[in-house]
Amino acid sequence: MFTFSLLLAAFATRCAFAAPNLVKRLTDTQVLQFALNLEYLESTFYSRGLSQFNETDFENAGFDSSVRERFVQISEHEAIHVKLLQSVLGSDAPEPCNYTFPVTDPVSFVTISFALESAGESAYLGALSVLQNKTTVTTAGTILAVEARQASYVSSSILNSTAWNGPFDTPLSTSAVFSLASQFIDACPSTNPSLIVTPLPILSLSPTNVTVNDTVSVSVSTKQDFSPSNITIVDDTFIAPTTDGSGPFYLAFFHGSQVSFAPLNADNSTTIPDGLAGVVYTALVSSNATAPSPDTTLSGLYVLNIPVPPSADNSSN
Ligand SMILES: *[C@@H]1O[C@H](CO)[C@@H](O)[C@H](O)[C@H]1NC(C)=O
Ligand SMILES: *[C@@H]1O[C@H](CO)[C@@H](O)[C@H](O)[C@H]1NC(C)=O
Ligand SMILES: *[C@@H]1O[C@H](CO)[C@@H](O)[C@H](O)[C@H]1NC(C)=O
Ligand SMILES: *[C@@H]1O[C@H](CO)[C@@H](O)[C@H](O)[C@H]1NC(C)=O
Ligand SMILES: *[C@@H]1O[C@H](CO)[C@@H](O)[C@H](O)[C@H]1NC(C)=O
Ligand SMILES: *[C@@H]1O[C@H](CO)[C@@H](O)[C@H](O)[C@H]1NC(C)=O
Ligand SMILES: *[C@@H]1O[C@H](CO)[C@@H](O)[C@H](O)[C@H]1NC(C)=O
Ligand SMILES: *[C@@H]1O[C@H](CO)[C@@H](O)[C@H](O)[C@H]1NC(C)=O
Ligand SMILES: *[C@@H]1O[C@H](CO)[C@@H](O)[C@H](O)[C@H]1NC(C)=O
Predict the structure, then answer these.
(1) What residues line ligand 5, using a CB cutoff of 6 Å?
(2) Ligand 4 within 6 A of 104 CB?
(3) Which member of 141, 164, 170, 240 has the greatest number of CB atoms within 10 A?
């Protein structure tokens, strides 16, 4: 496995995902507007899920009786994050969008909760180096830590998995996070300030519950079309190449401060590299010669959750 360190500044400034988008530096207000959009999404996810499933439903799905009450607490945290960001942004605050979540039972609710908390943490982590105002950095840090604790609780206490990924977590840019969040967004009010993100095609892996050395089948949907609403303005510095079958293609795996690659076979299958642990974000790219850049990134992100048994070497992720 060949790994690039994204700490190399020369690559980091060009990286589409792992580094914040420095091609077009966002203002603090734009970063906070993006954060509020995420908090609206999370808050709606929890309040809707909790209205859908009562304690008995959670117990019948095999969860401890305390689990629903814990989600009530998490839901309260998200609602308070919404209020805080609304008050910081004042008249610059966007309104909530309309959302659809593929929640069919408490198990899918818990699984999506874990993905949302992990992506939320990575979003705040990616925002830190973009924010200029140190007071705002501290505010973002206090929320970041809570998102990380919530992800750990869901992963360890509920899913009986690991509480951490490894020594490092993964910062993501707004476009990277949006490629995950946008799958739940139907439309946003046309009066909302525009989000400065790049819509990307949705990446899917099959099967979904994979670990290292597993072979997976990779597919990419058409780019999401948000044209009637004001969800996004395409960052016009970005031109996505098309997957015309010419190849070569790779999956890039973003883990901690590193990115690793796996080549795509002719049948669109690939093998998950060894050495990955916990939450790993992956995207389809057209080159393994440099860290992924806007020129080589072909899809949005997909979240993997690689099992980490207690006996495993967890000194890297
Ligand atoms: C990039 O992928 C090619 C196969 O497409 C492989 O031969 C080469 O070793 C890889 N390079 C790196 C740096 O991983
Ligand atoms: C919980 O919801 C289920 C349907 O999802 C319903 O059958 C049951 O009566 C509810 N239990 C309580 C205690 O409200
Ligand atoms: C930083 O943000 C705080 C809180 O919103 C605000 O009170 C302060 O004026 C800002 N500082 C600068 C230099 O803009
Ligand atoms: C987690 O472990 C507990 C206790 O052994 C068990 O009741 C529960 O079903 C497990 N949950 C999952 C999601 O495996
Ligand atoms: C959101 O859904 C409501 C209720 O269905 C609808 O009235 C409204 O127009 C939708 N908003 C947008 C931005 O599409
Ligand atoms: C929002 O979308 C509408 C209709 O597509 C457009 O007329 C309007 O200019 C957009 N507003 C902003 C702020 O982009
Ligand atoms: C994935 O799920 C399938 C079917 O539920 C199961 O047989 C398989 O062991 C799981 N694989 C992993 C890596 O957890
Ligand atoms: C993955 O495969 C490699 C090569 O076959 C092997 O050395 C390694 O132990 C495997 N890793 C795991 C976690 O099974
Ligand atoms: C691989 O994926 C590409 C792009 O989605 C598609 O055009 C092609 O037909 C796929 N190839 C196979 C063998 O499924």
Answers:
(1) 98, 187-189, 229
(2) no
(3) 170
